[in-house]
Specification:
The chain is of the alpha+beta class and 340 residues long. It has eleven helices and eleven strands. The strands form two sheets. It has a seven-stranded antiparallel β-sheet with strand order 4-3-2-1-7-6-5. The protein has a four-stranded mixed β-sheet with strand order 8-9-11-10, with helices on both faces. The longest helix is centred in the C-terminal third of the chain and has 36 residues.
């Protein structure tokens, strides 16, 4: 027989009583203390499962309970009485390295599946449910921030801007996106030769890209690609998916910060890049269809992309899985129709 100290709660008041619990080899348990003298069988009590060194409880009939901290004594009693196999099984799982590895792997698999398939599906549904006015508000706010931290006013002549805007408006009219389209000109600054589609219907075209283009059809091709992003609401889908994935990681990992934060968010980052490439491919197809319809060679976009890469040779050296855009050769083939 082994004896351990414990605390007795009668289940009816806040009073607590120091008691002694004696475990018998036959499975019996005897609890004694001030005005307490209980002689019970194993069938009369329920023992809480062991989880590491958290205090165990003996739950008695009528709401009474005993708290005790000597888990080893409880385990020995349970082993001798050949009962409560479920409790010992949970304890073995709790202390098993392989069980821990299996649990972590299972959680990782579930989380990865959600990131790869669940989050995109939820984001699609969420964006479909959002009115287009929300896109426009977010786009306007984004432009204000970009003007403050990155862009400066365009230096392209007003007459030249008018020519490009006329071609853009004609393209928007032909495409017929529900939210229309708005073209703004900016000096690119750190972004250099570039074009951006913001949430809503705003497309930004930088002076540097206009200067880089050797033909107006190249500019139209780039704008058609950006309108592909507008048509499919790619920015909003990207924002929605990132928000959903962020909620998942916080739910799984709690307060993610510092180095742990970087490690925890890497799967989400890689998934984000993967879907960014999918968005680029989708926008390329929109551009190709439009350019075909107006008699412009889709290769015009590929020509300008190749010139952009020539300005930044190291850009094409980025591994595909760490690039937000598909490889240049793949995009050129797609635009020429070779990938069909």
């Amino acid at each position: 027989m082994s004896t351990v100290s414990g605390i007795f709660y009668d289940g009816r008041t806040w009073d607590r009583h120091d008691v002694l619990i004696r475990f018998a080899r036959n499975g019996g348990v005897h609890i004694t203390g001030d005005d307490i003298d209980l002689d019970l069988r194993l069938d009369d009590v329920r023992v809480s499962e062991r989880l590491a060194d958290i205090p165990r409880y003996l739950y008695l009939s009528g709401g009474d309970a005993c708290e005790l901290r000597d888990n080893n004594a409880v385990d020995s009693w349970l082993a001798q009485s050949d009962a409560q196999r479920g409790s010992r099984f949970l304890h073995r799982l709790d202390t098993s390295v392989w069980a821990t590895v299996a649990a972590v792997a299972t959680i990782a698999l579930i989380a990865a599946s959600f990131v790869l398939w669940g989050a995109p599906a939820l984001a699609e549904r969420a964006v479909r449910a959002l009115p287009l006015d929300v896109d426009e508000v977010i786009g306007e706010d984004s432009l204000v921030v970009l003007d403050r931290v990155a862009f400066s006013p365009s230096t392209v002549a007003e007459s030249r801007q008018a020519e490009i805007r006329m071609a853009f408006d004609e393209m928007v009219s032909d495409m017929g996106p529900p939210m229309g389209g708005r073209l703004v000109f900016r000096s690119g600054g750190v972004f250099g030769a570039n074009a951006f589609a913001l949430a809503g219907n705003t497309v930004i075209l930088t002076d540097e890209l206009i200067e880089l283009a050797e033909h107006d059809e190249e500019i139209i091709a780039v704008l058609a690609h950006e309108m592909g992003h507008v048509q499919h609401r790619h920015v909003m889908k990207h924002v929605a998916r990132n928000a959903i994935v962020a909620v998942l990681w916080v739910a799984l990992l709690g307060d993610v910060s510092a180095v742990t934060g970087v490690a925890a968010t890497m799967p989400a980052v890689l998934d984000s890049l993967r879907h960014s490439r999918a968005f680029e491919r989708e926008a390329d197809l929109v551009a190709r269809d439009y350019l075909d319809s107006v008699g412009i060679a889709p290769s015009r976009l590929g020509d300008l992309l190749a010139r952009l890469v020539a300005q930044c040779p190291e850009c094409e050296e980025i591994p595909p899985y760490l690039s937000t855009h598909p490889p240049l050769e793949e995009r050129v083939d797609s635009l020429s129709g070779d990938a069909d």
